[in-house]
Design brief:
Shape of chain B: globular
Strand order of the largest sheet of chain B: 6-7-8-3-9-10-12-11
Structural class of chain B: alpha/beta
Chains: A alpha/beta (327), B alpha/beta (337), C mainly alpha (324)
Radius of gyration of chain C: 27 Å
Radius of gyration of chain B: 21 Å
Helix content of chain C: 55-70%
Order of helices and strands of chain B: EHEEHEEHHEHHHEHEHEEHHEE
Shape of chain C: globular
Distance between the termini of chain C: 17 Å
Strand content of chain B: 15-25%
Number of strands of chain C: 1
Oligomer: heterotrimer
Helix content of chain B: 25-40%
Strand content of chain C: under 5%
Largest interface: A-B, 41 and 38 residues
Structural class of chain C: mainly alpha
Chain lengths: 327, 337, 324
């Protein structure tokens, strides 16, 4: 892995227009870096903003959305002018595999022709050259090349997901964004797909952001993880470190809420629900549900602090400045 | 330790098949009549105060088994006994009183409540359908009692709400309350938490566990081995319509005997990043239940398959390496019987 | 503190009962949703209501008798006869006002008959499926195939030209499209989990249809009926214009027929032709506007525009931070 990050997201914000002139602040200042060959897990529950974040990276936001912040792909801010600056890179340098990607194929066109589309769109290859590339891509994802002329309904769910990955990799992007790529699949097929993704990042030097609500998946596949809550990154760092030394109560409680098949610890549930994002949040967004909340949590938003090299968290418990103040 | 009382549900050699429609052309061309062999000889029991989990991947027949047990689907053969009484051949009319005693909880909390019904309407409906608790105040009392039992307290906070005003976890509790209002003996829960956020799941599962301790029998259908291992008393692992392994939950998960179970467990991602096992990924995908392999239905994908596995269809026997009598596996290699 | 939905048993300190969304954010009713979204719905509804009021208060609004000659033949509009007179010297304005009664009555009644028959067939076919569905759909196909004009002529010739027969014909011709629409909707509602759940706790078909299916299907039925009214008014006009209408009543179609037979155009008597035609057009337009808005409210995804190119907006970051 080289040193300079392939992808650098700086202070990303996304708002959605709501009726009555209100706004939903879905992503609230997300920043992270991704190096070549690295697998970063973006974990959180429904409504935390993880999917919106990666859609913003691809510029796939609806017209009711507005965004702010910088997305540096190899140093160039692709979000600078919105659609104008993003579209040349979309599918070429940064690619995505969607939730339910199995259903992302047009049923009346062959799978091969659809995988060739990004090649043709970006003027990389066409005709026979494109077809050869398609066969190589299918081979890469473990599908035999002569299936290129088949239709999506002839593929099983797991195979369609592989084809969706092949489609995303058509133009050899540097970054692959995967949104819940295995959520709708059986656990055995999930294992196959996760192994494929891991192998691809190793063999191709591909960087990956894996978005999921499934903590064990991230634990198995990713090198680093960012835990999102209420549109922010609550904690981010090396995978093992986050599990064994969590520095944010939400991370700790989320792990505690995930059953461990062979373990005996009881599984907890986290009371309450995430805060509404269409209103300004005062203090720490997790405070109402936190088991360790204390006096500053209700009125002051915690600072983003580096608690160890490469490990950051947004919690007053890590903040010596706050802790030293009289309660 | 769970209190296991009498047997509530006893299923023996259950077979359920769905015909694959041939269409007019198929009939004229005399194509063979195909069926989906959803459930191919399944036997298990659920006792009072016991939670049994039917675990498996899609197409294994666990949902079809549940549907057949509650008689929403007709079985082709086999017996279903509820409290000692055979129910597989009962008419719709005779089944009606039974619908009070056996209740189903569905997977999707966002779809299982009528969006036009308030919480009160939803929970009151079973009472109206079965003509129980004649007066409005009596029904109101029962509705509140059910809300309390389902953990939705104080009831006033929820009773006049519409589903869209509630979270997923709360909706699922409303659905549970609606099934509790009739005071059932057996609950069949089809993936009760798979569509809920992780932080909310334990609450619902603890609720079910609490009901179990009150004496209800619970048959839980799930694809999530971790959940089953944590909350169920016994696990039955299904593959292509059969139970391939069964036994006490912790025992099955820590000491799996059937090669399919072993592969499944090895492949489930672990919570601890440092504790990942080498996944034993099986080739291909689960075959279509229309064309079931001959002999042992798992042999094409089995890592320890032998020549004789192609022709022998194994029965459930006590596994050689198991220390517990009730732990059985259907494999002639690990459980020759 | 931002609004919380509390999980049970763990109601935090000081959480007031309004911790859950207060009742005012309840999903708006179907009708208010329609009206709020679309100005065209409001305009359309206003027009329809205006015409209905004219029809109801016809005796108070009409200026002259509709049976007696009260002015010269084909007199142009004047201060005494606002819309002039027809070929019999009868005041056009009063004829228009009274004509609205018949046109609207028949239109509404015809649409109602179509809705009742179509709705019933659609619900039964969609809910029960199987051979009931097959039989009903074949019957629907047969009715669909019957040509309108010959049917109208036959009924008029054999059973007589009465208002009741016209209403019946409208019902017979239009129920089929409603039936298909409702059948499709019922089929999809039948598969919803809450219906299956109600069935699994022992609810009978009657209850399932009454309490779970019909309420879901009713808005669509109403929207469809409103659109049907437009068609029914048109059909009535068409039938009467052809001379197959009830000779003892006056409707807008009759007025057009009279104008045609009385050579109004040759006499340059535009006031005998234009007002009824315009009235029919406006009513149909208004009903369509309302019905269309209702359908849009029911299925916002059908609204055109979601395929438009994505154009999200970028904001300058500093400005936002200052504002917060």
């Amino acid at each position: 892995m080289s040193d300079a990050p392939v992808l650098k997201v700086e202070d990303l914000h996304v708002w959605f227009d709501l009726s009555g002139g209100r706004e939903l602040h879905a992503v609230q200042g997300v920043s992270f870096e991704l190096r070549a060959g690295e697998r970063l897990g973006l974990v959180g529950e429904s409504g935390c903003g993880k999917t919106t974040t990666i859609l913003a990276l691809m510029g796939l936001l609806p017209s009711s959305a507005s965004a702010a912040g910088r997305v540096l792909l190899d140093g160039e801010d692709i979000l600078a002018k919105g659609e104008e600056t993003v579209s040349p890179h979309r599918w070429k340098d940064i690619s995505m595999v969607f939730q339910g990607a199995m259903n992302a194929f047009n049923p009346v066109k062959t799978v091969g022709s659809q995988i060739a589309e990004p090649l043709e769109m970006h003027g990389i290859a066409s005709g026979k050259v494109a077809r050869a590339q398609v066969r190589r891509l299918l081979d890469l994802v473990g599908i035999s090349g002569d299936r290129a002329d088949r239709y999506p309904h002839e593929f099983s769910g797991g195979m369609r997901q592989r084809a969706a990955i092949a489609l995303a990799l058509a133009c050899e992007p540097k970054v692959l964004l995967a949104d819940e790529p295995t959520t709708a699949l059986d656990v055995m097929v999930q294992a196959q797909i996760l192994e494929l993704l891991t192998q691809l990042t190793r063999d191709l030097g591909l960087s990956m952001v894996l978005v999921t609500h499934d903590l064990p998946v991230v634990a198995q596949v990713c090198d680093r993880a960012a835990v999102m809550y209420a549109g922010e990154i609550a904690e981010m760092g090396d995978m093992a470190e986050i599990y064994h030394e969590p520095r944010h109560p939400y991370t700790r409680m989320l792990f505690a809420a995930t059953p461990d098949m062979l373990g005996d610890d009881s599984v907890i549930s986290i009371p309450g629900a995430p805060p509404r994002l269409d209103r300004a949040i005062v203090g720490c967004p997790f405070a109402p549900r936190c088991d360790s909340a204390f006096s500053p949590c209700a009125d002051t938003h915690p600072r983003r602090l580096e608690v160890a090299p490469g490990h950051e968290a947004m919690c007053h418990l890590n903040d010596r400045v706050t802790l030293e103040q009289p309660a | 330790m769970s209190t296991v009382g009498g047997t509530l549900l006893e299923v023996a050699d259950l077979v359920t098949r769905y015909p694959v429609p041939r269409g007019v052309i198929g009939a004229v061309a005399r194509r063979p009549k195909l069926s989906v062999h959803a459930v191919e000889g399944v036997s298990f029991s659920v006792g009072e105060g016991e939670m049994v989990a039917l675990v498996g991947e899609s197409g294994c027949g666990k949902t079809s088994t549940a549907q057949t047990v509650i008689r929403m689907v007709e079985n082709e053969s086999g017996s279903i006994k509820f409290r000692g009484r055979e129910i597989s051949s009962l008419s719709a009319r005779s089944l009606r009183p039974l619908r009070r005693e056996i209740q189903m909880i569905y997977q999707d909390p966002y779809e299982s409540l009528d969006p036009r019904f308030t919480v009160r309407d939803t929970i009151e409906e079973p009472l109206l359908v079965h003509g129980i608790a004649g007066s409005k105040p009596q029904r109101e009392a029962k509705v509140r009692e059910a809300l309390d039992r389902a953990g939705l307290t104080p009831p006033d906070l929820f009773i006049d709400r519409f589903p869209h005003e509630l979270s997923g976890g709360q909706r699922q509790r409303v659905a549970i309350a609606a099934s509790l209002v009739l005071d059932p003996k057996l609950l069949v829960a089809d993936e009760p938490v798979s569509m809920l956020d992780v932080s909310v799941r334990a609450g619902i599962l603890s609720l079910l566990d609490g009901l179990r301790r009150q004496g209800l029998g619970i048959l839980m259908i799930t694809h999530d081995l971790s959940t089953a291992a944590h909350f169920a008393d016994r696990i039955a692992v299904m593959y292509l319509g059969r139970i391939v392994e069964e036994g006490p939950a912790k025992e099955v998960v820590r000491n799996p005997q059937h090669p399919y179970t072993r592969a499944l467990i090895s492949v489930v991602p672990k919570r601890d990043p440092r504790e990942q096992t080498v996944p034993q990924i099986l080739k291909g995908e689960t075959p279509n239940p229309v064309h079931v392999p001959s002999g042992c239905r798992f042999h094409p994908r089995c890592p320890i398959a032998e020549e004789r596995c192609k022709s022998i269809d194994p029965q459930l026997h006590r596994a050689r390496e198991s220390h517990v009598a009730e732990h059985r596996a259907a494999c002639i290699v690990t459980a020759p019987g | 503190m931002s609004g919380l939905i509390t999980e049970p048993g763990l109601v935090p300190e000081g959480a007031a009962p309004e911790a859950i969304e207060p009742a005012s954010t309840r999903r708006p009713g179907f009708f208010s949703a329609t009206l709020r979204g679309e100005p065209q719905a409001v305009v359309g509804l206003a027009i329809v209501i205006a015409f209905v009021l004219i029809a109801i208060f016809a005796p108070l609004i009409a200026t002259h008798s509709v049976t007696q000659k009260t002015g010269p033949i084909y007199q142009a509009p004047s201060s005494s006869h606002w819309l002039g007179t027809d070929d019999g010297g009868v005041d056009m304005f009063s004829l228009m006002v009274y004509g609205s009664r018949v046109s609207l009555e028949v239109g509404f009644a015809g649409a109602l008959v179509a809705m009742l028959i179509g709705g019933a067939v659609g619900v039964v076919a969609g809910f029960f499926g199987g051979w009931v569905d097959i039989v009903l759909m074949r019957i629907t196909d047969i009715f669909l195939v019957i040509p309108d004009l010959p049917l109208i002529i036959v009924v008029a010739a054999v059973f007589g030209r009465t208002l009741a027969n016209i209403i019946l014909i409208i019902g017979i011709i239009y129920w089929t499209s409603t039936a298909r629409l409702i059948r499709a909707q019922v089929k999809s509602v039948r598969e919803r989990v809450y219906v299956k759940r109600a069935r699994s706790l022992g609810a009978g078909n009657g209850r399932l249809i009454r309490k779970h299916v019909l309420p879901q299907v009713a808005p669509l039925l109403i929207a469809n009926t409103v659109l049907m009214i437009a068609l029914a008014v048109f059909l009535e006009t068409y039938i009467t214009f052809l001379g197959l209408g009830d000779p003892s009543t006056v409707s807008w179609g009759k007025l057009i027929e009279n104008a045609f037979l009385g050579n109004a155009v040759l006499n340059n008597a535009w006031w005998a032709v234009v007002p009824p035609g315009l009235a029919v057009t406006v009513v149909i337009l208004a009903c369509t506007m309302v019905g269309q808005s209702m359908e849009d409210a029911l299925n916002p995804r059908l609204k055109v525009g979601h395929l438009a190119v994505r154009r999200f907006r970028m904001r300058p970051l500093q400005g936002e931070l200052d504002a917060e």
